[in-house]
Amino acid sequence: MPRQTQTEVMPTAYPRAIGQALQVLRQRGLIAFPTDTVYGVGAQAFLPEAVERIYHVKGRSLSKPIPLLLDSADRLANVAEDIPGEALMLAERFWPGPLTMVLARSPDVPDVVTAGGPSVAVRVPDHEFALRLIGAAGGVLAATSANLSGRPDPVTAQEVLGYLEGRIDLILDGGRCPGGVPSTVVDLTRPSPRIVRAGALPSDQLQQAIPGIRFSR
Description:
The chain has helices at residues 17-26, 48-58, 76-79, 85-94, 111-114, 128-136, 157-164, 203-209, and strands at residues 8-11, 31-33, 40-44, 68-70, 99-104, 119-123, 140-145, 170-173, 184-187, 194-197, 214-215. The protein is of the alpha/beta class. The protein has a single domain, classed as DHBP synthase (Alpha-Beta Complex). An eleven-stranded mixed sheet has the order 1-8-2-3-7-4-6-5-9-10-11, with helices on both faces. Strand 9 (184-187) and strand 10 (194-197) form a beta hairpin. It starts with 7 loop residues before the first strand and ends with a strand. The model has no long low-confidence stretch (mean pLDDT 96).
C-alpha cells in the first residue's frame, strides 16, 4: 500500500511554490502540477526510489514506463542517445507542446523510469509554470498523469486531490489545465516513425512534418 502522508495544496502563484516543490522532490517526495495537457504527478527522474513511488501511488503496473518532462529540447542528450534527425525536427516544430517522443534511452536513465526497456518517452510541455518548475528541478522530471491508473485524467487540482489525497506530498494548484487531452505519442525508435497514441497534437500536423508517418498497429 502507498504510504500515507498529508497532502498540501498550494497555488502556483505563491512566491514559495517552486521552493516548496523542490524541497519535497529533494526528500524523494511526489508533487502534482499543471501542464498544458493534464495535471501530472512527478518525482526526481534520477532517484529510482522516488520514481518507484509514482507506480505505487497510482496503482500503475511496473511494466508501464514513466515519461520524462524536460524544460527544453536542449536536455534531450541528457536522457536519450542515437537521436534521429526526425526527432530534432519535430522538437523544433512542436516543442513546447503536446507531443511525446519515444527515443533510445541514455544509460543514465534509471531502469525504473523505462520499466527496464531500451527506450524513454520525453516531452517539453507548453506551460509557463511547469517549465519553471522543471528547470528549477534540474531540467528533467519523471511525470505521468496524476490519477489512479485506469481513471480519467485530471484537469484540476481538486480532481488530483480526489485521486491522490494522502498518497502524495504536494499539489500545486494552477487552475484548470488549458488542454485537457493527453499528448500525442510518436515512436522514433523504429525504422519508420509511428504514432502510438493519438492525442492533443493532430495527426495531420505530424503527417505534414513527416510524410508517410502512420499509426502503429
